[in-house]
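Hi L.,

You mentioned the student needs an example of a multi-chain input paired with its predicted structure. This one should do, with 489 residues in total across all chains.
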Amino acid sequence: MSYAIHARRISHERLGDEVIIINLVTGAYYAGSGTAADVWTLLVQGASIDQAAEKLALEYSGNFPTIRDDVEVCVTALLKAGILDQADAAAAPPSALELPIIASREWKPPAFDEYTDMWDLIQLDPIHDVDDTGWPHALPKSKL
Amino acid sequence: MTSPEVFADAVAASCEAALSRVGARVERFSIGAMSIKLVAPCDEARPWIGRAFLPSPVPAAEAPDREHCLAIWDGTRPESLPPPRPWGPTAHEPLGVIAEYSTGTVRCAFDIHTSSLVVRHDRLNASYVWVPKLADLPAWALASPMRVPLSWLANAHGMQVVHAAAVAMGGRAVLLAGAGGSGKSTTALACAMAGMAYLGDDYCVVEPGMNMVHLLYRTAKLFQASLDMLPKARAWLCNPRRATEEKGVIFFDSSQVSVVPSAPLAAIVLPRLASGERTRISRASRREAIAALLPSTIGGLMGGTAATPGLILKAISGVPIYHLMLGTDLASITDTIRAVSEAQS
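Structure written out for the whole complex:
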């Protein structure tokens, strides 16, 4: 099973050891570094959990079963958050998985900083309604 | 079903008709290499919405078709309203962007804070904003107008509007990033009043490809506590009678502080209130800079666009990042920012 990223809904970028993923529909964002960035990079390339774990075990000189379990936990969380979708079963397998060259890697369970309360942030001034013209209409109020 | 292009064309026509009835004022400003023509109603009944922008010192662009038109109009009488919305009453939730009407060439949004409709129309190289009544906009809205269409425009030009303040010294800018109440505005204004150049206290524009910070608004919004620390600024407030109920708002002119359009980014600092008189710094990580910049930037800009993650990562990647533990002594704050700036020379 590989995974797909909804291009219109999800925007993501990796630079160096950091990755940022934004759900453009909800405003939720996820930021990670190190192992989290590497797992994401492999998933973006179409890796399954097993394929990602194999590549990571090689890169990190780590224990495959442990790494596979950690990757599965991470993927499950990303699926639950709506960041990843399960790919079409007919999707072609990745030809070669690549990771950026980084001087030293130490395996840690991948974890993303997440911020999912964007609606609370946006609703600092929550008063709005729909008027007779059909437009949401509210008197501007002070905010912050 | 009305297509996004057809709706955007209708919005453009409504705006043009409304502005031709009431009379429009045109003013130009720039953000980096972006030239923007602001078109807005101009009469005694309405505040000039362009007051927050630093007028461009250069004449209009030689190629007017490359100039982006940013037009705003208002009114709730039938002839002034935008065309009927072709989407449902909650289509703008949760972020404000109307996803079904945001394609590659048109982008539509509704801002719940000002009840404004925002439409970007790429084919016309124009953005349109409708508000119910310009005269009813509170001072904070006039201090940071049209933030969302400007952020979309910035993204299309390799720039990112960020929720941050910025000051500069010797041509080296320090970006101050943090949540509301972290001390950004107080720090920025204290530095500006101590002689540093001012690039904004709430929203700035970063251009990672050029490693630059650009001014977006020549304004400041200050809590009462900040005004107590900077009593001289009280005389500059445009809303002195309301400063206890809402943030005090200042529109700067050149006699007050040195407002500059741009400066190279030298460092990022993440301020937070701390105990003691002296202000201290310590190194911070890129991950901490992301945590300081991203939530309020995304929240204030309706989620950003597909370009936002890359632009933010690039903006923070090449500069040192520091925690700034703010003490109560203003001179210590400005000395510390000055030292951070000078250390990058």
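You could point out the following to them. The helical segments of chain A are 35-44, 49-60, 64-80, 118-122. The CA atoms of residues 130 and 136 of chain A lie 4 Å apart.

Best wishes,
N.
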